[in-house]
Amino acid sequence: NMYSELREEVQDHAHVRNAYFDQ
Q1: pTM for the full predicted model
Q2: CA-to-CA distance for 15 and 11, rounded, in angstroms?
Q3: Nearest 10 degrees: Cα torsion 5, 8, 14, 15
Q4: Residue 12: pLDDT band by 50, 70, 90 thresholds?
Q5: What is the Cα–Cα distance from 23 to 4, expressed in whole angstroms?
Q6: How many CB atoms lie within 10 A of CB 1?
Q7: CA 7, 10, 13: angle at the middle one, nearest 5?
Q8: From which domain of life does this come (predicted)?
């Protein structure tokens, strides 16, 4: 499912952003 793949990618980017701002 292309939609679920896109959702996972967006969540992964959000996780990276959160880790960046936590520093």
Answers
A1: 0.34
A2: 6
A3: -140
A4: confident
A5: 29
A6: 6
A7: 150
A8: Eukaryota
Cα–Cα distance between 9 and 22 in angstroms, integer? 20
Cα–Cα–Cα angle for 14, 17, 21, rounded to 5 degrees: 140
DSSP annotation of 23 = -
Beta-sheet strands, E only, within 1-23: none
- Alpha-carbon distance of 19 to 3, in angstroms, equals 25
User: Rounded distance, CA 2 to CA 15, Å?
Assistant: 20
- pLDDT confidence bin for 20, thresholds 50/70/90: confident
